[in-house]
Automatic annotation (TrEMBL):
Residues 1-27, 38-60 have a biased composition (Basic and acidic residues). This is Uncharacterized protein. Residues 1-60 are annotated as: Disordered. It comes from Caulobacter segnis.
Length: 60
């Protein structure tokens, strides 16, 4: 899968999307929902750069 990309189709609607090999949108999730889900769950794997929703994030 590709890196997630932040888009804002219209004011107040920010979304993370992933594109398939042909450049079409394969997955879309609201930024607020994604952030809330990250805070509720503890992932078991480290996420690589650009894949923050797929694992734990490194603390600075």
């Amino acid at each position: 899968m590709s890196k997630r990309e932040l888009i804002e189709p219209h004011d107040g609607d920010k979304r993370y999307i992933r594109r398939d090999d042909k450049g079409r949108i394969a997955e879309s999730v609201d930024v607020g929902k994604s952030s809330a889900a990250d805070q509720r769950r503890h992932a078991q794997h480290d996420a690589v750069r650009g894949q923050g929703d797929r694992g734990d994030r490194q603390k600075p």
